[in-house]
Amino acid sequence: MVDPAATLRAMYERINAHDVDGFLAHLSDDFVEHEEAPGLAPGKEGVGQFFSLYMGAFPDLHFEAEEIMVSGDKAIARIRCTGTNSGDFMGMPATGKMVAVKGVDILRFEDDGLAHEHWGVFDQLGMMQQLGVVPTPGSAPAPA
Does the global pTM surpass 0.85? Predict the structure, then answer.
């Protein structure tokens, strides 16, 4: 019997250990990423590139599942992601700043125990504000 919650926890453990191959072993070969990242394929290979990019920019990248719920063949997680920007990120030099952002992951599993699809929401604006790349409300100069 497939336990989507346990599998999702194991996937986060692999990310936290920076074991991209171990993480990808939980994805089916026909995996579909619905939260596409610009310039990356929406499949298993693109997901691997995505995490390699983030791990290079945030060497202490850590995912914490604050809550995991299961509904049918899907596992839904409320997550908190933290990391220190110690490497180049999306063409920007490292800021040395720590970020802590929230997100939601939804993964669909099949009887083979593998994830076949992912939908997600990640606070990219909050991350860019914490990095100092985008001003936070009230920090930008008032219009003249």
Answer: yes
